[in-house]
UniProtKB/TrEMBL annotation:
UniProt xrefs under InterPro entries: DUF1304
Keyword Metal-binding on entry: no
Name of protein: Membrane protein
Residues that span the membrane, as ranges: 6-27, 55-74, 80-100, 112-129
Keyword Transmembrane attached: yes
Organism: Glutamicibacter mysorens
Domain of life: Bacteria
PANTHER family: BLL0914 PROTEIN
Keywords associated with the record: Membrane, Transmembrane, Transmembrane helix
Pfam families the record matches: DUF1304
Coiled coil start-end: none
Length: 130
């Protein structure tokens, strides 16, 4: 279960690195605007906010990857803590998105499913000892 949790935590981290790239690097492009359903004017007006928000996603990804590495090296307490912190924050952000912007529920589900699975599998792995 812990290995499966590591796989989902890594997938969640990779997704959040992609989100970082969209928010911080390509926010005003047509492709990214279509993903986030924003107009050109909205993208320009929120450019600085999105740039900052993208880095939050990157830092959550880094924490999750650091946790996956720590787990792989046998440091269960540190690794689990980092994976729970990183993916738990990702899942919480997805819930905030879904509740705060119901029109973006599909994006929230895409953002939250991988962290949810990582958390659930890590809990099972820790409880069951595998």
């Amino acid at each position: 279960m812990i290995i499966a949790a590591q796989i989902f935590a890594t997938a969640a981290a990779l997704l959040h690195i992609y989100i970082f790239s969209m928010e911080s690097l390509t926010w005003t492009t047509a492709k990214t605007r279509s993903v986030f359903k924003t107009s050109e004017a909205e993208a320009e007006a929120t450019r600085e906010m999105a740039f900052n928000q993208g880095f939050y996603n990157l830092f959550l990804a880094i924490a999750s990857i650091a946790g996956v590495i720590a787990l792989g090296l046998g440091h269960m307490a540190v690794g689990a803590t980092l994976v729970f912190a990183g993916t738990g924050s990702m899942l919480a952000a997805a819930l905030v998105l879904a509740l705060g912007s119901p029109g973006k529920a599909k994006l929230a589900i895409k953002q939250g499913v991988l962290p949810f699975l990582a958390i659930a599998l890590l809990i099972l792995g820790l409880v069951l000892g595998n």
